Amino acid sequence: MRILVIEDEAKLADYVKRGLTEAGHTVDVARDGIEGRYLALEGDYQLVVLDIMLPGIDGFGVLSALRQRHGTPVLMLTARDRVEDRVQGLEAGADDYLVKPFAFSELLARVGALLRRGPAASEAATARMTVSDLEMDLLSRKAWRAGQRLDLTAKEFSLLALLARRKGQILSRTTIAEQVWDMNFDSDTNVVEVAVRRLRSKMDDPFKPKLLHNVRGMGYVLEERA
Asked: Where is the Response regulatory domain positioned along the sequence (predicted)?
């Protein structure tokens, strides 16, 4: 999905862009309200992540202009946790509200929820993903290998979906733990290794070619290798 982030704090904007990009989205960033309003109105975005306190035009002004022309889902960000601010944003047409500071996993979950409800939801929901002879249906949460249905648990499917979305990219144990289990990584916890081992026994061991690979000292990658 294509997402617009309107945020004047450079470090936060770069952090959000990097995380959403790693999650498979295409992300543009605007550093002030004027540029953000222009991109939101003229661009083709499935979601806008919008800060309230912006130079030029504040987030409420951007939201008001956007709502006059588009129904693009909007997730508002603010450092102010006042009920009045949240009410004002929601009444102005925001779809969700997140207070700074926030965990990226929460932002990603809210983004996912808004995208599932947004205009592109029906297209995204029916999309299938393939890696070699591995097929996944993200709507029904089913997977097949060489035409054979895989009997995966909910967490195993989520792990496989994460790896498939970022096929060819090495994912660290920290990233996997945060994305699949929504937990901070603990070096004494082997939950990722155990889950990978169980997934491999169902998805990879009975088939060729092997798709799920360990990268020593770095993590795991899903890809077809010669």
From this structure: 2-115
- Is the previous residue joined to 101 through a cis bond, with omega within 30 degrees of 0? yes
Report how far residue 32's alpha carbon sits from residue 226's, in angstroms, rounded to the nearest whole number.
47
Cβ-based neighbours of 159, under 8 Å, separated by 6 or more? 176, 180, 195, 196, 199
CA dihedral 7, 37, 3, 89 (to 10 degrees): 70
Q: Tell me the average pLDDT of the chain.
A: 86
Whose structure tokens read 């999309």? 127
Per residue in 70-95, pLDDT tens? 888 999 998 766 677 777 777 778 88
Contact criterion met (CB below 8 Å) for 63 and 92: yes
Q: What is the pLDDT of residues 47-60, one digit of tens each?
A: 999 999 999 999 99
Largest CA-CA distance found in the chain, in angstroms, rounded: 59
Looking up tokens 């806008």, which residue turns up? Answer: 48
Distance separating alpha carbons of residues 220 and 168, to the nearest angstrom: 10
